[in-house]
Every structure is written in structure tokens, then in C-alpha cells.
Amino acid sequence: MPATADAPDTYDLVILGGGSGGYACALRAAQLGLSVALVERDKLGGTCLHRGCIPTKALLHAAEVADETRHAASIGVNAVLEGIDLDKVLSYQQGVVGRLHKGLQGLVASAAITYVEGGGRLVDAQTVAVGDRILTGRHLVLATGSQPRSLPGLEISGRIVTSDQALGLTELPERVVVLGGGVIGVEFASVFASFGAQVTVVEALDRLVPAEEPSISAQLTRAFRKRKITVRTGARFSGATQGEDGVSVTLEDGTTIEADLLLVAVGRGPVSEGLGYEQAGIVVDRGFVPTDERLRTNVENVYAVGDLVPGLQLAHRGFAHGIFVAEQIAGLSPTPVDDTLIPKVTYCDPEIASVGLTEERARAAYGDEVQTYDYNLGGNGKSQILGTQGFVRLVRRTDGPVVGIHMIGARVGEQIGEAQLIVSWEAHPEDVASLIHAHPTQNEALGEAHLALAGKPLHAHA
Ligand code: NAI
């Protein structure tokens, strides 16, 4: 019999939200012998598994296969791209999501976790109500995540969609306007272009992916233009109207762009409204829940993790937060999660991967004592084989460690692991230069960049 208000269930932790942050916290807490209730109103796995990372990367993989097929004949493999069968693409995507979902459900079921389906709401700082069921926690973990946001006055409906709806389109649009040239914007622009649509990206700031190094933004813009994607930066959106046949998007400079679909990708906002956080005394700032570096909210024994906490909105940050909080509650004194050491990968074509400081941030921290080095993928054998262009950019403290690594080119996301070790372990270029990188891999480009910064370039043009 589930407990009711008269006879509450009591746990070491009650976790609200079963996405990356929440379920990671639950699994780690259970491993550590803590009693856990995990409350989820939708599907276990949250945004990442059902509406984010996994389904979008499946689409991006299908997009890559389409492009490879389109270009196959140029390397002597005669093939013709006959078209995109969106139903099949979606069933492939759902197959991937479904298998991972099943696996995750199995993991949670086999751990000593009480999984509670339903919308939870804080009654006070120790108590969560899920319908009639009352769960009491010695600790509460808020892990309710984020959702796409729109602009004031821009209603999401019909041909005006966010990434949530874009993942389930039943028809491929011929002309798409993507509003926002951040991570979601450039990934979807890439997919739609690969699937044959005419794409225009509208970005208010002066460059695409504004959180990355400016030279990465410039390279991406060049690559997109080569792919016939129209890039409009410094362009402010003014309004959109939709009818039976399309949507008209107007910019502040008076330009109107006609399209079949407007994808709004202007950021994601927190999910915290109506969940009783403020009534329980928890400080909420524009919907986000601020914490200290140990992820404690202002209320004792209440923690927040993942996208709900201001900072990078990434699934792997959520996992790290969740694990951290479980260990913290178990008394293990874990090391806090440092956003600057979190690797970032954007899976458009070409891919972008980065970790650590940009040159600008390094200069803000270390003044003139900063050196950079760009290694062009033109000198890398595997990059030539793949036919990709791009570079690896290192940022180091003069005579000191590498503090930032930034990469663009096909498949560079796969290189982020080594880049992360270099930056997190504060390696000097000389340390990396002494490691042998396998040939021919794009990984060598990382090695070559460090060789060059260590003063002994091999395949590097001055
Ligand atoms: P974002 O913050 O990365 O980009 C939003 C972009 O929209 C910004 O460049 C902003 O300048 C622009 N913008 C805002 N208002 C605008 C306007 N009125 N007109 C034109 N442009 C406007 O947010 P995004 O792309 O929606 O992604 C949300 C979060 O999800 C990000 O934190 C991102 O890191 C995360 N994410 C990560 C992925 C990955 O790791 N591969 C994939 C997808 C999302």
C-alpha cells in the first residue's frame, strides 16, 4: 500500500525529476546504500533521452549518411540519393531511444530505487506529494530540468515549432528558418540542409555559436555557406505569421523570409513553475534554482542538479551533478563540478568540440601570458581522407599548461576525451608532445598541435 498523508514513505533522498541529473543521482545513491524515491511525471530519461541528445544525434547520423551518399560518386562509389523516408528515419530514431529507455528502466528497476510515476510537487522542504501519495525525504533533490523557450508574443503552434516538435515532424519542410544560431539552431540547420531543405539561420548576435571561439564561428559559417545554408547574423527577429501554405518571418531590418517551418531555438528555460519550490522557501531566480558549488540550495538538505541550476545545460553536467549530490549526501566529500572543465560537443556538420577557456577568457584571467596555436586539419591525413576542413586551436598559459582546446571538423567530437584530459590534468604541451598519437587518425592533429607548441612541429606549415 503506498503511503498517504497519514503514513508517509520516508527516504534518505526524494528526487524530483528522472532525467540525466535525477536518475544519475538515484543510481549513485542506491549504490551507496541510501534509500531513494525517484519521481517522474513523463518518461524516465528526460529531455536527453526522449527530446534531446539521443533523438537529435540519431537524426544527425541519418543526415550524415544522406550527405555521404550524395557525395559518394565523387570518390568513385556510384550511388544515388533517392530521397529521405522520414517515417523510416523516425522509426530508426525511436528504435534507438526505445532500446536505451528499456535499458535505463531495467537499471533503475534492478537498483534499490522506489520509482514513482506521476507529477510531484513540494509540500514543504522535506515532503513531496505525488497525487495522494506523500513522500518524505531527509534530503530533497530538485532535478526538474529545462524546456524550450520562445520569445514574447511568438506562439509555438502549427508551422512554428521548437526542437520538441521538430523531432517528430511527419513531413520534410522545403524551406526552413531557424531562429537562433546556438547549439540547437546549428544542429537542426545541419539536419534540415542534409535532408535537402533550403535553410536560413537567423542569429541576433554577430556570429553563430557565440559561446565558442570566434574563429570556430567563422569556420562554421564558411562551412555552412558552402553547404548552401544561409546565415544571417546580427539579425533581429521582429515577428512571424503563418497561414495554410507557409510562415512569413520578418526581421527588424524589414526583410521577410518565406518558409514552410520556423524552428525557434533561442534557448531553454528552467522547469520550476507550479512545483511548490518558492512556497517551500527555496530561492528561485527567473525560474532557475541557484545553488552553492556543492549544489545546496538556500534551504538546508535541499539540493538542485542539472539544467535547473544556472550554467551549462548539458546532459553530462546533469549526470555529474547527480552523482556529486548522492556522494555528498553519503558523506564522501566529492570534488565539486567545475563548468569550465565540462567538455562541449556540437554535432552539426562540421562538428565542434571544446573544453576549457577561450582565448578571450584566458586573457581575462592571465593577461598577456597567453599563447595560442592553430593546427589546420589540412595537414592531417585522415582529415584529407574524410574530405573535411577545420582546425585544432590550443590556448595555453605562457610556459604553463594548456587551458583550452577548441576544434572544428568532421568527427572532432570523438577527440574531446583526450582534450579534456589535457585541460583537466593541466598538461603542458611538452607532456602531450611526448605521447605518440596513432597514424592515420584525426587524433594526430591534437598531437601535432602540441608538438608545435612544444617547439617541435612535424607536419605543420609555418
Ligand atoms: P543557445 O543559448 O545555445 O542558443 C540560442 C541562440 O539564440 C543564441 O545564440 C542567441 O543569441 C540566439 N537568440 C536569442 N534570441 C534571439 C532572437 N530574438 N533572434 C535571433 N537570435 C536569438 O540555446 P539553444 O541552442 O536553444 O540550446 C539550449 C541549450 O541546450 C544550450 O545550453 C545547449 O548547450 C544545450 N544543447 C546542447 C547540445 C549538445 O551538447 N550537443 C545539443 C542541443 C542543446
TrEMBL record:
Its EC number is 1.8.1.4. It catalyses: N(6)-[(R)-dihydrolipoyl]-L-lysyl-[protein] + NAD(+) = N(6)-[(R)-lipoyl]-L-lysyl-[protein] + NADH + H(+). Its main location: cytoplasm. It holds the Pfam family Pyr_redox_dim. GO terms for molecular function: dihydrolipoyl dehydrogenase (NADH) activity; flavin adenine dinucleotide binding. It is an enzyme of class 1 (oxidoreductase). It is found in: Cytoplasm. Residues 342-449 form the Pyridine nucleotide-disulphide oxidoreductase dimerisation domain. The active site is at 439 (proton acceptor). Residues 11-322 form the FAD/NAD(P)-binding domain. FAD binds at residues 57, 120, 144-146, 307. The keyword Cell inner membrane does not apply. GO terms for biological process: 2-oxoglutarate metabolic process. InterPro entries: Class-I_Pyr_Nuc-Dis_Oxidored, FAD/NAD-bd_sf, FAD/NAD-binding_dom, FAD/NAD-linked_Rdtase_dimer_sf, Lipoamide_DH, Pyr_nuc-diS_OxRdtase, Pyr_nucl-diS_OxRdtase_dimer, Pyr_OxRdtase_I_AS. Keywords: Cytoplasm, Disulfide bond, FAD, Flavoprotein, NAD, Nucleotide-binding, Oxidoreductase, Pyruvate, Redox-active center. Binds 1 FAD per subunit. Its cofactor is FAD. Disulfide bonds join 48-53. GO terms for cellular component: cytoplasm. NAD(+) binds at residues 180-187, 203, 267. NCBIfam families: lipoamide_DH. Belongs to the class-I pyridine nucleotide-disulfide oxidoreductase family. The active site is a redox-active disulfide bond. This is Dihydrolipoyl dehydrogenase. It comes from Phycicoccus elongatus Lp2.
